[in-house]
Write a structure and sequence with these properties.
The complex is a heterodimer of chains A (108) and B (366). Chain A is mostly beta strands and 108 residues long. Chain A is built from one helix and eleven strands. Chain A is globular, with a radius of gyration of 14 Å. Chain B is built from 13 helices and 13 strands. At the A-B interface, strand 1, strand 8 and strand 10 of A face helix 1, helix 4, strand 12 and strand 13 of B. Chain B: InterPro entries: DUF6745 (IPR046633). Chain B: It comes from Streptomyces venezuelae.
């Protein structure tokens, strides 16, 4: 389990990854060719994977985002130190904050 | 360049269009308007009139003597529906869903919420104006009973008239989600795209088009919601403005009062939503320090604090230290609010990631 600021990247056993997620197309890369795990709407700063891999949108308990790094990789951010990730599948979780009756995504 | 990169480039462009402020390129916008009419098989409008804000545009439209009928359907709605059907047939339902997810979906909620707030603001300001008040004065100040009674009927009539005019508007830059989905996919939307790129909302009628300038100020939080504590979050050149804190509309004078907040005033505020805004503005950390907050638990993940509020649920927060040092070597401390049932700091931090205290075990943190 790895944490970069407001994003948690938790390993998932490959056997637990739904077949439809394995077959699904990756989310598009950004203009710099990176997989964006979370984007700061205003600063434009992003938690992103520059190398090879796939990011799959998955509804339900595994989602919203599943990351596959067949060769391992690195998650980078403008304001946080990079983290090396071994090869495998990950669940990407964005930090949230409680507001009475609901919750909202934290701004990093 | 592959198709995915094209998507994100178009998305970046339309994200910027949706947030654009500053003077319109009037020549380019007018050329776009004329092109949109021609593409729809209509004669170009005899006149193009400019307004400084959607509020001013609504007044201008209502004062027109012979605009002709609204041609919004021909100019905007029909070509969009046909392009959507064409793309949907080409890509198939699943392909269309994927395409929408990669292009317009991310902009949809942001632009729709913004457009809704502008519509509500225009209706409120125009209604106050129609009843004799200045659009820039704070409408929440009109509380006196008899005046209010006397105004209610004409205000309702005004509000309906304004809403009808707003229904004829083409949202230009705030149609960015749809325009992103069709970017590079159809020449017939080129006129609409050009207006969106160079101006604000616009109204196409048979004989005249009314087009308004973009905002001069737009302030949003990380989630894209209108947000500013020391002035309007959205403002146009003529003074029409919206005030909001993290997306929640507030009155201008409420914001003006935030600078002089005291813990006593925060405690005395009866409206829970406004009190939340006050707490956020004042700073939870400051409030914790001065209000005798209970320091409830401490472990390796941080500190758990509890503030008891009269007639409201407790504010429970985890204080955590950012793992990555700031440029000066210090570590930024921040507070996250967690559910009032939280009992330990670890449980609180784990909750912010949707995990239980036992599940939360980061190996590396930066």
């Amino acid at each position: 389990m790895y944490r970069q600021g407001d994003v948690l990247i938790a390993p998932v056993e490959e056997t637990a990854v739904p077949a439809r997620a394995k077959a699904a197309a990756s989310e598009p890369r950004d203009a710099r060719g990176r997989l964006v795990l979370a984007l700061g709407e205003v600063t434009g700063h992003a938690h992103a994977i520059p190398g090879p891999g796939r990011l799959v949108r998955e509804p339900g308990p595994m989602g919203p985002l599943l990351l596959e790094l067949p060769e391992g990789g690195r998650v980078v951010h403008e304001e946080h130190a990079p983290i090396a990730l071994p090869k495998g599948w990950y669940r990407v979780v964005r930090q949230r904050e409680y507001v009475p009756g609901a919750y909202r995504i934290v701004a990093d | 360049m592959n198709a995915d990169t094209n998507h994100t480039t178009a998305l970046d462009k339309w994200r910027a269009v949706a947030a654009a402020t500053g003077p319109a390129d009037r020549a380019a916008a007018e050329a776009g308007i004329r092109l949109a009419y021609r593409t729809a098989g209509l004669a170009e409008p005899a006149r193009v009139l400019w307004a400084d804000s959607p509020l001013a545009a609504v007044a201008l439209v209502r004062g027109l003597t012979d605009p002709g009928r609204s041609v919004r359907d021909e100019v905007r709605t029909r070509p969009w529906a046909e392009e959507r059907r064409r793309l949907h047939d080409t890509l198939g339902p699943a392909g269309w869903a994927t395409h929408w997810q990669a292009t317009g979906a991310g902009l949809w909620d942001l632009t729709r919420a913004l457009a809704e707030q502008i519509r509500a603001g225009v209706t409120e300001a125009a209604t106050a104006e129609g009843a004799g008040a200045d659009p820039r004065t704070d409408v929440s100040g009109r509380e006196a009973g008899e005046t209010r009674e006397a105004r209610e009927v004409p205000e309702a009539r005004e509000a309906t008239a304004v809403r009808l005019v707003l229904l004829d508007a083409v949202l230009g830059q705030h149609d960015a989600a749809w325009l992103a989905a069709f970017d590079g996919r159809g020449e017939r939307l080129a006129g609409l795209a050009a207006v969106a790129e160079h101006a604000g909302w616009w109204w196409p009628y048979e004989n005249v088009a009314v087009v308004c300038e973009r905002p001069v100020e737009l302030h949003r939080d990380e989630a894209g919601r209108l947000d500013r504590g020391d002035g309007p979050a959205l403002a146009y050149a003529d003074g029409f403005a919206l005030h909001a804190w993290r997306g929640m509309p507030v009155a201008a004078d409420f914001l003006a009062g935030l600078a002089g907040l005291t813990p006593e005033r925060i405690r005395a505020e009866e409206n829970a939503e406004l009190r939340r805004v006050m707490l956020e503005y004042y700073g939870y950390d400051r409030y914790l320090a001065v209000s005798g907050a209970r320091h409830e638990h401490r472990d390796g993940t941080g500190v758990l604090w509890r503030v008891e509020l009269a007639d409201d649920e407790d504010v429970v927060m985890v204080e955590v230290v950012n793992s990555t040092p700031e440029p000066d070597g210090s570590h930024r401390t921040y507070w996250l609010r967690v559910p009032p049932s939280t009992r330990t700091a670890r449980e609180g931090v784990a909750w912010t990631f949707g995990l239980s205290a036992e599940e939360y075990e980061p190996l590396v943190q930066t």
